[in-house]
Design brief:
Rossmann fold; 25% strand; alpha+beta
Length: 396
């Protein structure tokens, strides 16, 4: 689960991290009081969407010459002008795709005197099985570009689970960030704070880009992106209250109710598969034959008829779907359960697009019999390659 920047900063501030004063804005009428409260003389107006690249993004409604989704303001009138242009309009960034995201929230924040910008993140390092800091002096830009062009400027520092962020770890981080003086002293308190927030709140990613050194020599968290481990949210009702469902795909929200692994994509062939690896292979072979998948959908190994029915309904609710491929290799998942779910879903919602079904494994003959006796207009497939070719041909 993701949260907005202003929520992430409030959370980090509660642990003791240094952040600027700011006020979230959900309505333009609140902007004058917010500007007065902060006082200026420099304000920053930030679009709050669950996507990066906001500063370089463009608003669909404002034309190519308009400013991006993060703007400086040097007067109260300029604050109000930015708020009026940004709130309610659609921001397109590298991460939103061409459709963009509507900006329903803004964050008005005090400006900062920046001396230098750093990149800092914490994540679970799958190579070492430890929580790691990723540190770079090249903050304020795409870390992917830094990794590609100057990988030597990115440092990965593991944290020992028993000692946490001790003096030796802080020394490594200060060296990686090339911090001295007041900034290095701030690091002694900030880095343990960030690690504590990450572990206690079951985060999967904490990214600060940039972490800044101000002209007075001190550190400040200037931006913050936080993602939480969905499997641990039951432990954090306070975090669940921060969820903004308007930032999530409605189909993904519906899928979460049935514990389905679903991700909406931009293609036109809907996929229902059991097992993440098989789902990835199914999407790959659809692309191989010239089409694009409309979704990733793993119904899992213990799916019920109800869950399969829900999955099918979610796929058909996508107006971009022009055909559906059901690809099941029954191990723990039984083919007859899948077949019953598909038949029930078609009875409930109808079938307006071509449907290709490939079943193999446990109870496969029973599953095929259910499909064959259902009266549905289903295209049967013998294997994955055959199934992909048939759905691509049927969609045309």
């Amino acid at each position: 689960m993701n949260i907005h920047e202003y929520q992430a900063k409030a959370l980090l501030k509660s642990f003791g991290a240094p952040v600027a004063d700011g006020v979230p804005l959900l309505d333009a009428s609140d902007a004058p009081a917010a500007a007065d409260k902060l006082g200026g003389p420099v304000w920053v107006v930030k679009s709050q969407i669950h996507a990066g690249g906001r500063g370089k993004g463009k608003f669909k409604e404002l034309g190519p010459d308009a400013k991006g989704g993060v703007r400086l303001a040097f007067s109260k009138d300029e604050v109000l002008s930015h708020v009026g242009e940004m709130l309610g309009n659609t921001l397109v960034t590298k991460q939103t795709g061409p459709a963009g995201k509507q900006v329903n929230r803004l964050y008005l924040e005090d400006g900062a005197d920046i001396e230098s910008e750093l990149y800092c993140s914490i994540l679970v390092n799958r190579e070492t099985g430890k929580v790691s800091f990723v540190a770079s002096t090249e903050g304020g830009m795409d870390i992917e570009a830094v990794a590609e062009e100057t990988p030597e400027k990115i440092h990965t520092i593991d944290v020992d689970v028993e000692t946490g962020v001790d003096d030796a770890t802080v020394a490594k981080l200060n060296a990686a960030f090339e911090l001295t003086g007041a900034a290095a002293e701030d690091g002694k308190s900030l880095f343990p704070i960030l690690y504590k927030a990450f572990t206690e709140k079951d985060m999967s990613l904490l990214e600060i880009n940039p972490l800044i050194v101000m002209k007075d020599g001190h550190l400040r968290v200037l931006d913050a992106k936080v993602s939480f481990d969905g499997n641990a949210l039951f432990r954090h009702p306070d975090v669940m209250e921060l969820r903004d469902k308007t930032e999530e795909d409605e189909k993904e929200i519906e899928a979460s109710k049935y514990d389905l692994a679903y991700v909406a994509l931009d293609g036109d062939i809907g996929c229902m598969v059991n097992g993440a690896g098989l789902a990835m292979a199914t999407m790959d072979i659809i692309k191989l034959y010239g089409k694009e998948p409309a979704n990733f959908l793993d119904v899992g190994g213990g799916a019920t008829t109800e869950k399969v029915t829900a999955a099918f309904k979610i796929i058909t609710a996508d107006p971009n779907v022009k055909g559906i491929l059901v690809n099941i290799f029954g191990g723990i998942m039984r083919c007859d359960v899948i077949a019953e779910g598909v038949v029930q879903a078609v009875k409930d919602v109808g079938l307006q697009v071509p449907l290709v079904v490939r079943l193999e494994g446990t109870k496969v003959e029973e599953g095929k019999a259910i499909i064959n006796s259902s009266g549905l207009n289903v295209i049967a497939a013998d294997d994955l390659d055959d199934a992909a070719q048939k759905i691509v041909k049927a969609v045309g």
